[in-house]
Amino acid sequence: MSEDGYSRKKIVLAGNPNVGKSMLFHRLTGVHVTISNYPGTTVGYTLGRLHYPGGSPPGSPCSLAAGETLEVIDAPGVYSLDPTCKAEEVATGIIATAAVLVNVIDATNLERNLDLTLQLLEKNIPMVVALNLWDETAHLGIAIDDRKLESILGVPVVPTAAVTGEGIRTLVSRLASARPAPRPPSSPPERWKEIGRIVAACQVLSPRRHTFLQRLSDASVQPFSGFLLAAFVIGAAFVVIRLIGEGIIARLADPFFESLYAPILYRISSFLEGEGFFHNLLIGKLIGGRIDFRQSLGLLTTAPYIEFAMVLPYVSSFYLVLSFLEDFGYLPRLAILLDNFMHRVGLHGYAIIPNLLGLGCNVPAILATRILESRKERFIAATMISLAVPCAALQAMIFGLVGARGTLYVGAIYLTLFAVWLCCGIVLKSTVQGFEPELLIEIPHYRFPPLGPFLKKVWVRISGFLREAVPIILLGVLVINLVYFSQVFDVLADLTAPVVSGLWGLPRESIVAILLGFLRKDVAVGLLVPLDLSTKQLVVATTVLAMFFPCIATFVVFLKEFGIKDTLKASAIMILATTAVGTLQNLVF
Q1: Crossing angle, helix 188-202 and helix 110-121, to 10 degrees?
Q2: What's the CA gap between 323 and 357, in Å, rounded?
Q3: pLDDT value of residue 395
Q4: pLDDT per residue over 297-327, tens digit each?
Q5: Is domain 10-205 given the CATH code 3.60.15.10 in the classification?
Q6: H helices of 140-250, where?
Q7: Any idea where the domains of the chain sit in the sequence?
């Protein structure tokens, strides 16, 4: 059954990782997209709908009707139908439900991709082959006779370029011509011999000069040039993120709140006579007779200001940069470059991808650990992310508050978190049982992403962040007001004073911010503003907040992915590490 309760024929996109399958999926389905978990697993796949304009010819085995709405599924990328991990099990299960298979092939790597193609043909399911990245073949001196390939395989073959949209209309029209071309099961050596014969018959290679992007691609994975390039990319990324974020705040966010929004709030404040429970709940406290968006702590003042004027600008710029690096093709090369280093913390190079995603939001980062083969790797990566990878919202507050005291102190926080991340990985590598597989990764070609799909991807991420963040921020500010109103604060402060004040050197009032970090880290850092902390205290408090327990959304996802036992283990690691690091910072600074 589909999400609206109706049964639909399934069009399943199947192929190796990094063949442009997701881009092709979005070309076919537009905006009608949902993400689901395969029943009984935590492995996700993407669902969409396609309104089919044509119809199947008489006698067609797939029987698609004109005007029929089809369900399109983007199955997890796999190299084989002999499952070696949960993602491959899920992909195999999805493929078995298909009315039509669309096997997406990277035309620039025909030989490697045909191994899965021959396995899919053995399933005896109506199939069409999308020869994707067709536009890249000419640049690389690759000529493929798609008509001859179609004749040999026995199923329709359509050249496509999902980035530009080339061939998409033809692909849709030929879905009705999909047909099975069953082959007897063959062992891998036999398949590769047949693949060699197919490639020899259909593909011709001619020499081409390396383009600038190809030379840059080679330099990206060489040890010396690769590390220089990585240092430049990471440094430039943070500079761009900060410049865009600060520009949005200075030119858009602050003028809006101060000039357009504040007068409305002053009228509400006057109506509520400037005091009382509801005034403090909605507007917050007046500082010197005026609304201070950072310190008033009202549902209509500090809550929206933190979200839209302090956090969203930096989050938006982060996702802009991260999405570009993803679509340009740099992140897989960074994974290869860092593979040897990552093995020192019990992971292989591709684990850098979830860690980088964690710099945007820890929730998708924890989910992205599913790409790692062993449970040991997944637990180590998820714990490292939860403990020492600050999300974009938290980073926005670090830049905004600590950055005002000097860039050196921002660097001190990041250096501390990196040291914690490294030590955590080294310790867990030695103590957690399990195996550490080697890195097997597909490297896509460097290419500039098309503007439309790129901006859509960025917007999906930003809107998802807003849907998650706004309710929790409002809840956080509400809880803060209720805590102060009910005088629960005094009890909490007394209980935690030996650690908060004794070991960390922070004022007892900071416990509210630290505990509220469980709801929302950026709100918690914002609560440090009214405490008038010294620079040393601000560095300690921000580091503690970054490390001390993940936000509630990350905690729930961690629990769902790893179960109660591993979640308790990770929680104990976070609490012990935070206590030790906060104490050490208090002694050293």
Answers
A1: 120
A2: 10
A3: 84
A4: 788 998 888 778 877 887 788 888 888 888 8
A5: no
A6: 146-153, 168-173, 188-202, 212-221, 223-248
A7: 10-205, 223-436+453-588
